[in-house]
Amino acid sequence: MSADPWLQRWMPRLLDAARGLPVLELGCGDGADTEVLAAAGLQVVAIELDEAQAERTRRRVPAAEVLVGDLRQPWPRGAGAYGVVVASLSLHYFPWPETVAIVGRTHRALRPGGLLACRLNSTEDHHYGASGHEAIEPDYYRVDGVPKRFFDEAAVRRLFSDGWRVEACAHRVTYKYVKPKALWELVLEREPAG
């Protein structure tokens, strides 16, 4: 695996958006992004489903608050408690209604004007499951026993159509893994309610 410096390009904007509030990281994995965020001086609260991965993150980034939990369960703190939410390749495990609900919860967790920086699997991500697997629903497949959703631009736009101002939406390729991975990279600002 190689370095994946995606957060670096957004760091000035993330630091500005945080405004002293914590960053919520959804699906921190082994803590690579957690480490980048904490090294920039941000207070990080991370949620990870896998206990072993969460423990790796705790060891890697002792300053972060790392919790084990399912993204569909209640998150720590209340509405508007975060200046930034980061979700890198963690929103693709769910049926469409649950994905929409998680995005809605993300919106509520952010302060007005707060930012969501996220990456989503692309429908062009054929190395990692966008083709050749059992379909559960359109663009949602069972990949090696795990449900995975893949997004085209229309699905990305539909997912963030309500209450978000899109600052950036780009189709990119990361070389973080063994093979190139196609994904959507987004930075979105939470618009004020009503």
Topology:
Blueprint: H1 6-18, E1 23-26, H2 32-39, E2 44-48, H3 51-60, E3 65-68, E4 82-88, H4 96-109, E5 110-121, E6 134-137, E7 140-143, E8 146-149, H5 153-159, E9 164-174, E10 181-190
Describe this entry's structure for a reader.
By secondary structure, the protein is of the alpha/beta class. The chain has helices at 6-18, 32-39, 51-60, 96-109, 153-159; strands at residues 23-26, 44-48, 65-68, 82-88, 110-121, 134-137, 140-143, 146-149, 164-174, 181-190. A seven-stranded mixed beta sheet has the order 3-2-1-4-5-10-9. It is globular and about 45 Å long. The N and C termini lie far apart (44 Å).
Task: Give short descriptive properties of this protein.
194 residues; alpha/beta; 7-stranded mixed beta sheet; 3-stranded antiparallel beta sheet; 34% strand
Topology as H/E string?
HEHEHEEHEEEEHEE
Give the CA-based shape.
globular
Rg, please? 16 Å
By secondary-structure content and strand pairing, the structural class works out as alpha/beta
The number of strands is 10
- Share of helical residues: 25-40%
Cross-sheet strand order for the largest sheet: 3-2-1-4-5-10-9
